[in-house]
Give the backbone structure.
Amino acid sequence: MAPPVPGELTFVAPRGAKKPPRHLADLTPAERKEAVAALGEKPFRAKQLSQHYFGRFSADPEQWTNIPAASRSRLAEELLPPLMSVVRHISCDEGATRKTLWRLHDGTMVESVLMRYPERVTMCISSQAGCGMNCPFCATGQAGLDRNLSTAEIVHQIIDGMRALRDGEVPGGPARLSNIVFMGMGEPLANYKRVVGAIRRLTDPEPDGVGLSQRGITVSTVGLVPAINRLADEGLKCRLAVSLHAPDDELRDTLVPVNTRWKVREVLDAAWAYADRSGRRISIEYALIRDINDQAWRGDLLGRLLKGRGAHVNLIPLNPTPGSKWTASRPEDERAFVEALEAHGVPTTVRDTRGQEIDGACGQLAASER
């Protein structure tokens, strides 16, 4: 295990919490061979198992016809145990958006969302059950942190989504996943080792992994500066998305409490360093909240901070949670904010607000189930 980064936030699982069972996706290719050999099987069985899981999306030993029947059940029990079960799927946009509520082995709930567009398919996945960042406008942040997800629990969300696309469960016919965003429940960089492990499994070539492109993966963070710096040393080509939500420290200290530890300038400096190392443009995520952070002068200040940096701003009309005082900006304020950014030459997109009718905001569905 890599040593903790100085200044990095550390979260401890609640006392008595059960660890997820060991799974093939938790292991590197070399570790899989060792695990298979420890079960008394030939090491090449590890490659066969990887082909079934990562290439064919199958954890059903009845389908493993190239493995002797006598070996299948033991290999399945030890290396492909059930990790999570679907509580329910909820769809909208004529089935093009499907949100899944998962129950993990210990009863914890997490969510993922599959979004099909004419030109691409994106999955938004969770990296933690709950979140410890405590952002007041976020349903997940207000629920608190239950625990980190294992590498395999993160990967399995994608494996299931890819199987559903292949098998035509999502309207529009069979399709291939094009983009993955770590923007579901949790702060990905607070579960650093397992998130990076998941990225490796998803992007390693078949049969060692799924064979997806690193360039199709986006990792979001509220700004854990030491972890951003550590990520820059990984040699990855993933995009980094910084959930900024305010350009000034005074407001961001309230909206994103970790800002009391690492200020806006420090977060952006770390992001620019990551951009230099990875060659990827930084995305700035900004939830527009009525009368809180949507003033045109804040748009102007944000534009000044980002001018000439090649960053792209994703403005997110806030998807309000029940009972919350936080709500989406008025259309005229949204337009003025966009104009203030564009005046500085900062490319800006107002994100498509999918999923409002299916508890689309991160954490809403899990909270309603609880």
